[in-house]
Amino acid sequence: MKTPLITKEGLEKLKAELDHLWRVERPDTTQKVSWAASLGDRSENADYQYNKKRLREIDRRVRYLRKCIEDLKVVEYSSVQEGKVFFGAWVEIENDSGEQKRFRIVGYDEIFDTKDYISIDSPMARALIKKEVDDEAVVRTEAGEFFWYVTKIEYLK
User: Fold this and answer.
1) Kind and range of the H or E run holding 154
2) Domain definitions of the chain by residue range
3) Phi and psi dihedrals of 133, rounded to 5?
4) How far is 24 from 58, CA to CA, in rounded Å?
5) Residue 37 vs residues 23, 48, 54, 107: alpha-carbon distances, Å
6) CA 123, 64, 27: angle at the middle one, nearest 5?
7) What is the CATH number that goes with domain 5-74?
8) Are 139 and 91 in contact (CB under 8 A)?
């Protein structure tokens, strides 16, 4: 089960994707399907089959985005969060080996196509919630326990 939270920027990105799919990609693909269908035998028509499949993918994504956008709760920055790790925070951590990581804790629908975003539902995020700078976080995964120290917390305001 994913937590239905999202940042304001994440919601805007999803809305832009939905708008693009609905206003640009779907009409364009529908036109290609109609054109390919007009050529006759659809069973051996690669253009028809490819674009028909693409149309199903677009429709599936549009349905998902509409439902998703409706169900998501935008988490706005609050000064109460300052100094502690909460949803939307940029967090820098380090382990005893000196390995460092920097990422932002966001909703599940925001982590795709970004290297430095992690889901609020991930073991790392769960271990870091409510921690402060210099606190130790114990991250429990199937691979074992890992110890990280919070070195910096920032929020986009």
Assistant:
1) strand 144-154
2) 5-74, 79-154
3) -55, 135
4) 11
5) 22, 6, 15, 41
6) 140
7) 1.10.287.180
8) no
Query: How many helices (H) does the chain have, and how many strands (E)?
Result: 4, 7
**Cα-based distances in Å from 61 to 68, 85, 114, 119:** 10, 32, 19, 20
pLDDT in tens, 21-65: 999 999 999 999 999 888 877 778 888 999 999 999 999 999 999
Distances from the Cα of 2 to the Cα of 13, 121, 140, angstroms: 19, 7, 18
CATH of region 79-154: 3.10.50.30
3-state secondary structure at position 153: strand
Helices (H), the chain: 8-20, 26-37, 46-71, 123-128
pTM for the structure as a whole: 0.83
Contact predicate 150/139, CB 8 Å: no
**Strand 73-74 vs strand 5-6: parallel, antiparallel, or unpaired?**
parallel
Give the C-alpha distances (Å, rounded to integers) separating 6 from 11, 34, 117, 143.
6, 38, 12, 28
